[in-house]
Specification:
Annexin V, domain 1, mainly alpha, 21 helices, about 60% helix, 4 domains, about 325 residues
């Protein structure tokens, strides 16, 4: 059995890569291999015999999704060091790591902890519930039982998951309002995806953000009529039918009835009847949100009272 990674030649490393990910995928990752080189790799693989899990893991960490054909000569990345499939972890702070591991199974948590420095590993472990902590410690001692393909899949999935975590600054204590402010600058699709991820991974933080995160739907559903009238009069008339796209007819008529009679007569029904790009609808609705936030700055309303569900008296 091959147990010493340091004794491997470049072609032996490539042969191990072929055996782990399959020849078809390996060929798509390794550009410029000639037929002669491929035959040498196949021959080397047949002659190597069994390769230990630890060696396979080390090879994959070196070459996983980031090597070029010339790297096969020296086994180095562009920066002179091995390429690590879990390198994204280095960009996460402690609280982001905790959020990343939230709701993950003990083997996955153990797999990630194995990549961390001892002090950070203990910090994360001490944040876990006692029962879960015990399960993770057991898993840490049996990582060799996890197929390498499983490690690759987990690494890719968690890297994708990490892209939806709030940025470092947004993890500051009492940072829910900062997150809500950040969301206000995103498209509606991004907002929905981010909030769904936040709800799944950290329900408490989601609830805190929701209390600050104002949407067009909140305005339509929660704002008192007098404030809505003020908003309607502060927005250009041709913006209204675009913002109202997707609302039911009864709600649209309710909004139009709140306009002064002169504006009702000038309401652009032709524009309202035409389909509109979602981007335009999002932009029109954002004008409502921006106008409401300006009213809060001016002291005309208190968004906390409205969004928290407090009783409103007209």
């Amino acid at each position: 059995m091959v147990n010493d990674y340091h004794m491997l030649s470049g072609i032996q490393k490539v042969a191990i890569l072929f055996s782990v990910v399959g020849e078809s995928l390996a060929m798509s990752l390794i550009k410029g291999l000639s037929k002669t080189e491929v035959r040498k790799i196949r021959s080397t693989l047949r002659s190597m015999g069994t390769v230990s899990f630890a060696v396979k893991k080390r090879v994959m960490e070196e070459f996983y999704f980031g090597f070029l054909s010339e790297q096969f000569e020296d086994g180095k990345g562009d920066d002179g060091g091995p390429i690590q499939p879990f390198e994204f972890l280095a960009d996460l702070n402690d609280e982001q790591l905790i959020a990343l591991l939230n709701k993950e199974e003990p083997p996955v948590i153990a797999m990630i902890l194995a990549q961390l420095e001892p002090d950070k590993k203990m910090l994360i472990l001490n944040k876990l519930e006692p029962t879960l902590k015990g399960q993770v410690l057991i898993e840490l001692g049996s990582l060799d039982d996890i197929p390498l393909e499983g490690i690759i899949e987990v690494g890719a999935r968690l890297k994708e998951k990490s892209t939806y975590l709030p940025r470092t600054a947004e993890f500051s204590r009492g940072g829910a309002k900062e997150i809500a402010d950040t969301l206000s600058g995103m498209s509606s699709n991004e907002q929905e995806r981010y909030m769904q991820t936040l709800q799944n991974e950290d329900p408490d933080l989601y609830a805190a953000v929701k209390a600050f995160f104002l949407t067009f739907d909140d305005i339509m559903e929660k704002f008192p009529d007098d404030i809505i009238r003020t908003l309607l009069n502060s927005i250009e008339l041709d913006i209204l039918p675009i913002a109202f796209k997707g609302l039911d007819e009864e709600k649209i008529n309710e909004m139009k009835d709140m306009l002064p009679q002169k504006k009702q007569a000038m309401y652009n029904d032709d524009l309202a009847a035409k389909p509109q790009p979602k981007r335009e609808v999002d932009n029109a609705r954002k004008e409502f949100v921006d106008a409401a936030k300006q009213m809060e700055k001016d002291g005309s309303l208190n968004l906390d009272d409205i969004l928290s569900g407090g009783e409103m008296v007209e």
